[in-house]
Every structure is written in C-alpha cells, then in structure tokens.
Design goal:
Helix 1 links the parallel strand 1 and strand 2. By secondary structure, the chain is an alpha/beta fold. 50% of the residues lie in helices and 17% in strands. The longest helix has 22 residues. Helix 5 packs across helix 12, helix 8 crosses helix 13 and helix 9 packs antiparallel against helix 10. It has two domains: 199 residues, Spore Coat Polysaccharide Biosynthesis Protein SpsA, Chain A (Alpha-Beta Complex), CATH 3.90.550.10; 97 residues, no CATH class.
C-alpha cells in the first residue's frame, strides 16, 4: 500500500498541528510532500526536521489552497512517478491510522471511482459553539457523493485528467473539481470510515463570520462557472441565499407598517424552528438548536461573500483570500 499511495499536505502557520498531521502520514506512506503557503511560524522547520519533501510556494503569486495542492501533486509525481493514488490533507488535520487501508480497496475495486473520502471529526468541539458547528458539518451521509472536501484519497490519473484544482479559486475548489470529474464520467464516494481529526480552532464570532462569507464567495463563483450546466452547481444554494440574505431583509426594512414589519421579523424564528425540526442533525437539543440558529444567521455573511465575488468580477479585480484563522 505504501508504494501505491503518496500524500500531499498543505498548510500555513499550522505549527504543532502540522507536526501531528505529518507524523500521522509518515507511518502510512513512503512519499510525503508538504506545501507551505508563506508560513511565518516554525512550520517549515517542523517539516524539514521530519525529512519530508517541502515545496515553498513563490510568494509573488497569490496563495490559494488549490494552487498549493496542484504544486504538491506535481512535486509528488516528480519524486515518485509510479504513484497511483494521492491522499490530500489539510495541515490542521490528523489522519486516522486505519483510514487508508479502508479507502484504498474502494478505488482499486471500482475503476470508475475517482475520489474516496470519509468522516472528518472535530478534535475540540467542546471549546466553542463554532467548533461544534464544524463537527456537525463534517457529519455527512455515506454513499455516492457530489463533492469531497480538502481531505480525500484521489486517483492520480483522474486528478491529472481534469487538470487538478482550479488554482484561481480562493474557496470551493474541491466541489468545483468534482463537477469536472463527474462531467468526465468519474464518481465520488464517501464511505463509513473515520478519516481525519480536524482542528478548526474557531473561538470567536468573527472567525465564524469570515468562514461563512468565504462559503458565500464559493457558492457565487461555483454557480457562475457551472450553474448553466446540467449539474446546476450551487444554483439552488445561491438563489436561496439571495432570498433569505438580501430580498427578505430588504422587504422588512421597507415595510412602512409596524405590524407588518413585526410579522415579517417573526418569519426568522419560524425558519429556525423549521430547520430544527426537519434537519438530519442527530444531536442533542443544544447542538440542534445552535445548528438551526446559525443556519439562518449565516445567510447574512454568505450574502456578503456573494456580493464580494460579483463586485470583484464586475470591477475586474482579483478576490483575495478570506482567512478565518
């Protein structure tokens, strides 16, 4: 297995989390590439001390996770051109020791399968409500999937065949690549296996807001790129957000009659209750309530993210990274 799989880890200022990430892979693969996006902490020293292959990205070119993964893949294939499968991992994650033995057979037994991913687990969900929201987000259904996340085992031939990630995207690069993979006849699968521990390290509201805004940017750009195709990539999410994040708030603000405004405002708690009742979040009351509340509240930063993408597009300017930590 070690000879068939290589790994690419990307990171920026992950520090000790990076050490845990790299060490979890060193015992599972023979070839490991770490791609650093301008870290100012001791991340590079950690990688060099562990004797992994390091790619230090050129700082004159804008950083994106997509660019980092592409350059890591290119380096990996240069070092070990016979590698057939690549495990991509974010530097704030630790790979479970039994993940690859469960994921690899899926790709080997199904030639139409391009990507296999599993279950992420948040390492410290008790630290903040924002970490718990991430843990809920990672609890995804198994089976054939439309997308994968940053942690995934990918068939090298499929990845190379579609040109890898779109290096220009500042967010949403994994789902966008999955659209191209599916258009090329490949399939994506999520299996019932623990894949990685993730450390979101979100402890305040501003981090959550920025992360949600980044999602909005990804929705808008993804729909702009692939919304007219048969897959209607993120069209539904974009339209729903335009209603709840802009049209409905504007309707409330222009309501001249006080009782009408109060009635419209009551729609929001009703929406929270509806999400609480009908979501597939199998958690206790506290987590389900938080999930429902923040789903409704997230419409605002997501809308800001959408507006940011379209304003930059119309002005012909390049969007900058939206970092939450």
């Amino acid at each position: 297995m070690n000879k068939m799989i290589g790994a690419v880890v990307i990171g920026r200022n992950e520090g000790d989390r990076l050490a845990v990430c790299l060490q979890s892979l060193l015992v599972q693969v023979d070839t490991l590439v770490y791609v650093d996006s301008g870290s100012t902490d001791h991340s590079l020293e950690i990688a060099e001390k562990l004797a992994v292959t390091v790619v230090n990205l050129d700082i004159s070119i804008p950083f994106t996770a997509a660019r980092a993964r592409n350059e890591g893949f290119a380096k990996l294939m240069q070092v070990s051109p016979d590698i057939q499968y690549v495990q991509f991992v974010d530097g704030d994650c630790e790979v479970f020791s039994d993940w690859l033995p469960q994921a690899l057979p899926c790709l080997m037994e199904n030639e139409k399968l391009a990507v296999v991913c599993g279950q992420r687990k948040e390492r410290y969900p008790e630290k903040s409500v924002y970490n718990r929201l991430c843990d809920i987000e990672w609890d995804t259904p198994v089976g054939e999937a439309l997308t994968c996340g940053g942690d995934a085992l990918i068939r090298a031939a499929a990845f190379d065949g579609v040109g890898g990630y779109d290096a220009s995207l500042i967010a949403g690069e994994e789902p966008e690549m999955c659209v191209r993979l599916r258009n090329s006849g490949w399939k994506i699968s999520r299996i019932d296996a623990e894949m990685t521990w993730h450390d979101a390290n979100m402890t305040d509201f501003s981090q959550w807001w920025k992360r949600a805004a980044r999602s909005g940017h990804a929705y808008a750009e993804g729909a702009w790129m692939h919304g007219q195709t048969s897959q209607k990539h993120w069209v539904r999410e974009v339209r729903r957000n335009w209603f709840w994040g802009l049209s409905f708030p504007v309707l409330i603000m222009v309501s001249a009659i006080w009782p009408t405004m109060v009635f419209l405002l009551l729609i929001y708690p009703i929406q929270v209750f509806r999400i609480y009742r009908h979501s597939n979040v199998h958690r206790d009351f506290k987590d389900r309530s938080a999930f429902a509340f923040f789903c409704v509240l997230a419409n605002l930063p997501i809308m800001f993210g959408q507006i940011k993408f379209h304003s930059n597009r119309l002005m012909g300017s390049k969007s900058q990274l939206i970092e939450y930590k």
